[in-house]
């Protein structure tokens, strides 16, 4: 699909840029200098899978990005891309909370699986168990965050539905509510609803996460309530928000951004500082929360997760399969 309209992603460089476990989690937050933000959360009323969210998500110490402190909550929840509502990163948190209800929420799973099913997200939270993982998050626009996500690995859900031998890919589809989200009509040149996809081995990788919370609280609407994908070694647009359907397919699924700009947004979209976006470099990134004029930091191959995921792409030309 060729788009001749001035695209909203055309950004200037300045813009694109048991009890013991709980105590450990609290110590981590305090050590990170975020106790104030955590305390403020206790008074917050957020939408999402609130009934199924645990009071004390355990911190999984195996998955903690330690190169930078976690991004303060106000930035994680106040600087978002969610084109279903707006292209204005600062306005999303307002527009996504003007009557859009994400509780209750169901997730349909089908395609090449032995056990297709429809699940309530609250029930899913209770069944799967919730843990906190602190991941790097790298946007294709050359900005980044460190985010404490709460959720569970996608492979737990995959095991539950039992894919058949025909399942080579996993397709994710988000909601489409034109009354609640003005972006559907405002940006009608996109092929809505938003879809994304992974190879089955990528989906089964232990890093691939379904998040239902942030900072030990249910995930806010603007961050993809009540359930979203998190794939930390890929650019952020692969981590689709507010999922309503997961399908296991034999063929590579069509995805929104790859369809909109196939020369700029590949199906894989692994973070790779050696492959520039056609309109900006990917070699460095702006750390959200720092000054807009702060020096950018180097971007890491696979966003720093190369040791874990490089084997998935052995033999592939990572410049060609971007």
Structure explained in plain terms:
- With 322 residues, the chain is an alpha+beta fold.
- It has one domain (19-313): Sulfite Oxidase, Chain A, domain 2.
- The chain contains 10 helices and 13 strands.
- Strands 1, 4, 5, 8, 9, 10, 12 and 13 form an 8-stranded mixed beta sheet that branches. The chain has a 5-stranded mixed beta sheet with strand order 3-2-11-6-7.
- A hairpin with a 4-residue loop joins strand 4 and strand 5.
- It is globular, with a radius of gyration of 19 Å.
- Mean pLDDT is 87; it is low at 1-26 and 32-45.
Question: What's the quick description here?
Answer:
This protein has ten helices and 13 strands. It is of the alpha+beta class and 322 residues long. It has a single domain (19-313), classed as Sulfite Oxidase, Chain A, domain 2.
């Amino acid at each position: 699909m060729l788009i001749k309209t001035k695209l909203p992603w055309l950004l200037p460089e300045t813009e694109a840029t048991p009890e013991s476990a709980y105590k450990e989690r609290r110590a981590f937050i305090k050590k990170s200098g975020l106790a104030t933000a955590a305390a403020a959360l206790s008074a917050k009323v957020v939408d999402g899978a609130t009934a199924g969210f645990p009071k004390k998500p355990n911190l999984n110490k195996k998955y903690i990005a330690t190169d930078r402190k976690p991004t303060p909550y106000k930035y994680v929840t106040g600087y978002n891309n969610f084109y279903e509502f707006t292209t204005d990163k600062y306005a999303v948190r307002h527009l996504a909370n003007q009557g859009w209800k994400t509780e209750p929420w169901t997730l349909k799973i089908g395609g090449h699986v032995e056990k297709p099913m429809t699940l309530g997200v609250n029930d899913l939270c209770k069944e799967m168990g919730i843990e906190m993982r602190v991941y790097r998050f790298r946007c294709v626009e050359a900005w980044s965050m460190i985010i404490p996500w709460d959720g569970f690995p996608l492979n737990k859900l995959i095991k539950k539905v039992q894919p058949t031998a025909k399942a080579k890919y996993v397709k994710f589809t988000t909601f489409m509510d034109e009354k609640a989200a003005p972006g559907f009509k405002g940006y009608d040149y996109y092929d809505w609803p938003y879809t994304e996809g992974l190879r089955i081995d990528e989906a089964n990788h232990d890093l691939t996460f379904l998040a239902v919370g942030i900072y030990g609280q249910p995930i806010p609407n603007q961050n993809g309530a009540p359930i979203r994908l998190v794939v930390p070694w890929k650019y952020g647009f692969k981590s689709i928000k507010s999922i309503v359907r997961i399908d296991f397919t034999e063929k590579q699924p069509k995805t929104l951004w790859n369809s909109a700009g196939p020369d700029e947004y590949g199906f894989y979209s692994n973070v790779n500082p050696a492959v520039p976006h056609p309109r900006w470099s990917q070699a460095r990134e702006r750390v959200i929360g720092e000054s807009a004029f702060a020096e950018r930091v180097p971007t890491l191959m696979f966003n720093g997760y190369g040791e874990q995921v490089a084997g998935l792409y052995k033999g592939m030309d990572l410049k060609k399969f971007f």
